[in-house]
Structures are given as C-alpha cells and as structure tokens.
Amino acid sequence: MKTVVVASQKGGAGKTTTAMNMAVAASQDGLRVAMVDLDPQRSLRGWWEARDAEWPQMPDTDPAPEQVKAALPALAKHFDILVIDTPPAAPEWLTTVMAEADLVLIPVRPSPHDLRAVGATLRCARGRIRLRVPAVPTPRAKVTDEAARVLAQYGKLAPVNAAMRVIYAETAATGQGVTEASDPKAAGEARELWDYVKGLLNG
Predict the structure, then answer these.
(1) DSSP 8-state secondary structure symbol assigned to residue 76
(2) pTM (predicted TM-score)
(3) What are the residue ranges spanned by the domains of the chain?
(4) Domain covering 2-202 in this structure, CATH number
(5) Deepest in the core among 20, 93, 152, 169, taking most CB within 10 A?
(6) How many CB atoms lie within 10 A of CB 76?
(7) 121-142, pLDDT tens digit by residue?
(8) CA distance linking residue 62 with residue 41, whole number of Å
(9) Could you tell me which of 151, 152, 182, 155 has the C-alpha nearest to residue 167?
C-alpha cells in the first residue's frame, strides 16, 4: 500500500480538495483507495458521508494521529492507496505522520501569505517531500508563474495547476469528485495530477 499525505499549514490552500479528487481519480483508475481525515474540521469525512459510491472508502472512525503508524498494516491488507488529509497547521505530530508517507503533497496558492506558510510544512516533512503542488486551486495569473519560481527552489513541482472553478465547491457539497461531474477542464486537471502522482509512486 502506498501512503500519500496532503499537508499545508495555510488554511484554504486546497488541501482537502486535492485529497478528495485525487482519491476519486485513483479509484476510477481501478485502485482500492482508503482515506483518513486527521483534520478536526472533518471536511473530508463530511464529503465522504454525502457520497453515494463504493470507492474511495474510509474507516468507521479516523485514527488519532499517534495511531496512524499502528493502523497501516491492517489497512495495507485491503487497500492499494491511503490518502491522509491533515489540518491547516503544523502540529508536533505532523512530522511523525509524514514519516510514514511515500509521498507528501503540499498545495499552495500563489499568494505571499501562502508562500510564507510553506516553510513550516516543509520543516515538518524533513526530507519526505517528493512533490509540491504549486496551486490547487489557483487563478490563472502572472503571480502563479512567480510562485512556481519561488517554490522550485525547494524541490519538485507538479506540472499541473488547477484554476478557480465553481465545480470544486459544488462537488464538495454533493460528495462527488470533479472527474465525476460535468466540467471537463476540472476533470482533466484532476486526472493529470493523479497520473503524475501515480508515476511518482510507481517510479
């Protein structure tokens, strides 16, 4: 089982949006996907509870952060991918959870505030980062390219930007992924990101 942690100290960066849409895209790719929600706001679980589909799946209750490592062997018997959503903060336990990841995704909006917040998340990762998502979602603007240049100094950036689209809010309310909805551009962005993540996980 491969484990993907989605993390960002900055709220509103697109962390839960990334987690849910990546999990749906991976499920549509034929993988058995599980999700765990470590964010006290429980937005990912709320989305999943509104969902009417077999995959992705979630445990009846989310483990406490300190229980994640112990829960992995049992999950690995039933799932191919585990996606872990985390809070918009850098709690002490985040380093421990990231240490169990095969891949850490850090969504970042192209704003000075978001770029400043990246540092705390990177410090928690301590070398576990294999991918940064420069903008999910983000407006298409010159600032996006400028943010990408700043983030590139930290390592690898995903070659995928997601635009600000109403469909993200709509699907968050209905329990869908954008690859199951009616916006082909958003669906294409989500599939492109998953294809890139899949390549990293299998590489």
Answers:
(1) H
(2) 0.86
(3) 2-202
(4) 3.40.50.300
(5) 20
(6) 14
(7) 666 666 555 444 433 344 445 5
(8) 12
(9) 182
